[in-house]
Structures are given as C-alpha cells and as structure tokens.
C-alpha cells in the first residue's frame, strides 16, 4: 500500500472515520426515504413529476475534519411514467479528502401486475477522488510522506438497480461503483475509495387511522471488508403533510475480527422530519445521535433537505409513491 495512503488512513482513524458506523464508503444520508435516488438509480421517475432536491449533511457537527456532504438532484418522468431521467452532483469532504461525482440516470418501468411496477435503472458519469495536504496539520513540517500538492484522480462510474413498487409496498436492489476502478492510476486509492457497494431497501405503508399512516422500512448496505450495515425505520404520516419518525442504524459482522463489538455495534439512532409547506415545496431535517463508545467524543449529525416539485402534483400522496 502506498505510504501516502497509509498516512491518510492513520489520520482518518484518528477522526473515527474508519471505525465509525458508516462501514460503507459511499456518503450516508438519513433522509434517503424521501429521495431513494441516493441508494437506487431505478428510483428515477418514481415520483411521477419533475422534482429538484438538495441535501446537506454535517456529520459529527463541530468535530475537526468530520464528513460534510452536499448533493443536488433533478428527477423527471416521461412517456406516461414509463421512463425516468435524473441528474445528480455530489460532493463529500472528509478531512483532507474529497469525493465528487456527476451522474446521469435513466430508468424504464414496466407493469408487472395490477398497479404493480418494476423499474430498471442505470447511472453513468464520473467520480473524482482527491487528497489535499494543505488541509492537514502534521506534527513534523516537511514530512516526506506528504504529497507536495493536491492529488486528483478521476474515473468513469456506473451504478445499476431494480425497483419494484405498488400502492402499498416497495423493494429495491442496487449496486454502485461498477466501473472505473481498474482505470485509476493508483491501485491503493482504487481499493480504498472505489469498491462495489450493494443496497437493499424495502418497506410498506399502512393506515393507522383516517389521518395517520405508518411506513416501516429497512435498508441493508454491504461493501467488501466492512460489516453489513442496516437501518430500521418507522415513519408516520400525519394528515398528508407531515412525516415524523426515526431510524436505528447498526450492523452485524465483526469486520473480520479487527474491531471490538463496542465500536461496531449499537451505532446510532436518528430523528427524521419531513414537512410539506405546500403542494410544491417540502423541507426535511434529521438529527443522528451515536450510541457506541465514541458518543462522548463527537457531536451529533445534522441533515437538511429541500425539495421542490416543478409541476403541481396530479395525485394525492396517501401511499408509498410520495416519498
């Protein structure tokens, strides 16, 4: 392994990045239920309307070098809902590193039963990986292990997914980082930052009363060399304009015996809120609190999302479609 990457991993370990609850390498979002494009490209066009959303996540707020992530996505539907199109830009900063991607997504949806649909989605674009030594504060100035200037590597990328849904149930399976790894000039960076990522998501919605619906769901995430992560969610819809709920995030597997259970289990809980200001505009907020042995060494995580429908919705959203 390249000595520069070894130095970076040491710094990252000091920040709690490597031993955090986020074993997966892709940026994490607590509000993925309200824009599942974050974890499945087949979701493109699912809302049935033109939709723009931006999300900002401040991980472990106030902790030096902690992750900060920002995304901008545009999602459209065409051909009476059988096709979906989306564009997205993402930037994730962790300490001295940056990950930036720009992707275009296409999905095609077919009717497979009464009001039941199966979508196939494909994303293609570019990802850039960077290390900026000016953002480090080494104990020994002029350390020969540090690069002299910013290191940038760029590679093409492809994501793919399947997504099934009807009026009350949804399930999806997707794989990310399917291309480009072998094209990176630095093998150490390709192994450290560009590996296959797998996601499985499923849930359903059910009425509790005339004004309240419940939506339980689960997200499972896997990348080779890390524990299998899962989120268990429960969201409540009040009078068709306010979502309130929470999420429990944990994992199973001992990361091949390299970490103790105190670090890898009981990871985090999240409070999640999504409010429809009117028929076109929505705002979301989530707060994550860590439950492992590192909870006293870093602050919680804040995530804010803003969404806007470009056209007035033609359908009510008393079902899983309007997430």
Tags for this model:
single chain, 323 residues, mainly beta, Porin, 14-stranded antiparallel beta barrel, 3 helices, disordered C terminus
Entry summary:
The chain has 323 residues and is mostly beta strands. The protein is built from three helices and 15 strands.
The radius of gyration over CA amounts to: 20 Å
Percent strand equals over 45%
Form type: globular
List the total number of helices.
Answer: 3
CATH class: Mainly Beta
Q: From N to C, what is the helix and strand string?
A: HEEEEEEEHEEEEEHEEE
Question: Mind summarizing the main beta sheet?
Answer: 14 strands, antiparallel, barrel
Assign the CATH architecture. Answer: Beta Barrel
**Nearest-integer average pLDDT:** 79
Helix content: under 10%
Stretches where pLDDT falls below 50 for ≥5 residues?
Answer: 1-24, 255-260, 314-322
Task: Tell me the count of domains.
Answer: 1
The structural class is mainly beta
Widest sheet, order of strands? 1-2-3-4-5-6-7-8-10-11-12-13-14-15
As for the CATH topology, it is Porin
What is the straight-line distance between the termini? 43 Å
CATH superfamily: monomeric porin ompg
What is the count of β-strands? 15
Question: How are the SSEs ordered, and which strands pair?
Answer:
Blueprint: H1 3-15, E1 51-58, E2 68-78, E3 83-94, E4 97-113, E5 116-131, E6 151-165, E7 169-176, H2 187-193, E8 197-204, E9 206-207, E10 212-223, E11 228-238, E12 242-252, H3 261-264, E13 268-276, E14 281-290, E15 301-309
Antiparallel strand pairs: 1-2, 1-15, 2-3, 3-4, 4-5, 5-6, 6-7, 7-8, 8-10, 9-10, 10-11, 11-12, 12-13, 13-14, 14-15
